[in-house]
Amino acid sequence: MGVVFVKRCILCGELLPAAGTGKAMLCPACAGEVRQSYRCTEPVYVTGADNAAAALYYTGKVQHAMQGLKFHHKQHYADWFAAQMLPLLAERLDTWQPDLITYMPIGLLRLRERGYNQAELLAKAVAEPFGLPCIATLRKRAFTPKQSTRKDASARQQNATRALLPLANADVHSKSVVFIDDIITTGATAAAAVKLLREMGAAKIYVLAATRTLGK
């Protein structure tokens, strides 16, 4: 007898109907809630970026799901978050004209603990449908404190500025780069990445995030 895999909604945990779901990851109720309450409808600003966008608000069930992706080994959640980001990039292809996709790095210790970088998972899932190369361009400086431990914007900015370094042999010179992040909070970390990519020679830099906190 074959093994039966049970699928649950990634936002509420309810069992998905056995028939007709295909690759669905949400129950009908949560799908409607995402459309009504979680779509990011406000402009997103990241200092130094040529443009920026985010798919969802980082609150409620979406926040819980992102925490599952980041901290609880729910790697398959990246496919759903990437699916929310894809339309944003599709709408902007003519203006952004990206040459490559890159992403926010994480530290080596955290990578060993977690086993993956959630931003890299998102970036690969976003790049693949458009046939764009997805490459690492930045690395985290060792022993940098977590951004979440820095409570005010000034402290986060100072911490972010020293946290990132260029990755050896990464070539972004004269290219249009889409930078992928999981969450934009104050935007300090994304801004630091944009600044560094600019110093590495990128011609245009666009930020695309899965989520952003409310009111940022």
Describe the overall structure.
The protein is α/β, with parallel strands linked by helices. Helices cover 38% and strands 16% of the residues. The strands form two sheets. Strands 1-6-5-2 form a four-stranded parallel β-sheet. A two-stranded antiparallel ribbon has the order 3-4. Helix 6 runs parallel beside helix 7. The longest helix is centred in the middle third of the chain and has 20 residues. It is globular and about 50 Å long. The N and C termini lie far apart (52 Å).
Largest sheet: 4 strands, parallel
What is the radius of gyration? 17 Å
Q: Largest sheet, order of strands side by side?
A: 1-6-5-2
Broad structural category? alpha/beta
C-alpha termini separation: 52 Å
User: SSE string, helix = H, strand = E?
Assistant: HEHHEHHEHEEHE
**Discrete helix count:** 7
List the helices and strands and how they pair.
Layout: H1 28-38, E1 51-57, H2 60-71, H3 77-96, E2 100-103, H4 108-114, H5 118-127, E3 138-140, H6 153-163, E4 164-166, E5 176-184, H7 188-199, E6 204-212
Parallel strand pairs: 1-6, 2-5, 5-6
Antiparallel strand pairs: 3-4
Describe this structure in a few short sentences.
With 216 residues, the chain is of the alpha/beta class. Helices cover 38% and strands 16% of the residues. A four-stranded parallel sheet has the order 1-6-5-2. A two-stranded antiparallel sheet has the order 3-4.
